[in-house]
Amino acid sequence: MLVTGGNRGIGRAIAEHFLSLGDRVAVTTRSGEAPEGALPVRCDVTDRAAVEAAFDLVEERHGPVEVLVANAGITRDGLVLRMKDEDWDQVIDTNLTSAFTLSRRAARGMLRMRRGRIILVSSVVGLLGSAGQVNYAASKAGLVGLARSLTRELGSRSITANVVAPGFVETDMTDVLTDEQRAAIKAQVPLARYATPDEIASAVTWLASDGAAYVSGAVIPVDGGLGMGH
Fold it and tell me: 87, 89, 96, 136 — which has fewest CB within 10 A?
């Protein structure tokens, strides 16, 4: 299995959960770091040639990729009237276009095996929207259409495609917030707390399990109730 952005935060937790289940796990990273026991693969997911090379390496070392978790993502926030073109392009390329590139490459092997799981990590922001994040919200919303179209194209070959939509999670990205910002966010969440990376990882590993074999085209919110009804 392959987890993108698997060296820290949510991606690392996902990789560690799969490792704890005895799975062979590869993670893409720009730094070369990876959880102990995982195969580190240096890869810029916005570079199609690098993605192809990453899959070649993983297939050589671990065999066909049966589970793809497209988790890598970035933010480049700013109000729409002030947002630079490069901030839009970088976020769409990293968060959405790379998920397409990865899914297309993974589907080749999955079609031959006649089985596979594609899991895309989105965000509650993709469902609710967020001022100052038109690029991020659009990229994360696009993953829903991607997964549902993949479901219709690949489902007859026992390949599922699903989306996990985390809410606010305790990661390096949220550690930089002020106490006032953190309190304001928690006030919006019915469960009145942030998620842990392990809670997101649990949803991902369930979607890859035998118990989720008949779940496809779904959006699984792990957001403490923040996005109810969306």
Answer: 89
